[in-house]
Amino acid sequence: MPLDIMLPDETATAALGAALARALLALLGVVMETGFVVHLEGNLGAGKTTLVRGLLRELGVTGAVKSPSYTLLEPYELSSLHLYHFDFYRFKHPQEFADAGFGEVFGPGAVCVAEWPDKAGEFLPAADLCISLQVLDPGRHATLVAFTENGTACRERMEIFLREARAGA
């Protein structure tokens, strides 16, 4: 069952990323055992990198969080897991994913967050959770769809964390 969320501003988009971080930490045992894949969908400017920035800030990253638009991958080594932020926008053909050897980082202990997942096609591992962002005027709209049992557990925890954050605000 999809979860729809209104994001009135950039702060709310970052808070969605923070909720994702908290949910992943709550599922750390599962992530360490199987890994976790998030597909981020949305047009340019929809807030995908802002969401990832909120995720990384909640996980303790204090340095610059940049979009991997040109590098394709920004790795983050965190104390308990490895987070890989991909951006496939510049891919001309899905084969580029395989040619770059990116498939090697997916697996136990890795959280892989992929912007523009459609550009990697069938080479990209299936998502546990897909977050689609749409620009509205004003704000954004997010739809979260889980594709696995782990994705469902993550989405449910995110919903709880977001509700708690709203109640505490």
Q: What is this structure, in a nutshell?
A:
By secondary structure, this protein is α/β, with parallel strands linked by helices.
Tell me the CATH superfamily.
Answer: P-loop containing nucleotide triphosphate hydrolases
- DSSP summary: helix tally: 5
CATH class: Alpha Beta
Shape: globular
SS strand fraction: 15-25%
Helical content (DSSP H or I, runs of 4+):
25-40%
Q: What number is the mean pLDDT?
A: 92
Q: Rounded to an integer, what's the Rg over CA atoms?
A: 15 Å
Instruction: Kindly identify the CATH topology.
Output: Rossmann fold
Along the chain, the helix and strand elements come as: EHHEHEEHEEEH
Tag the structure with descriptive keywords.
alpha/beta; about 170 residues; Rossmann fold; seven-stranded mixed β-sheet
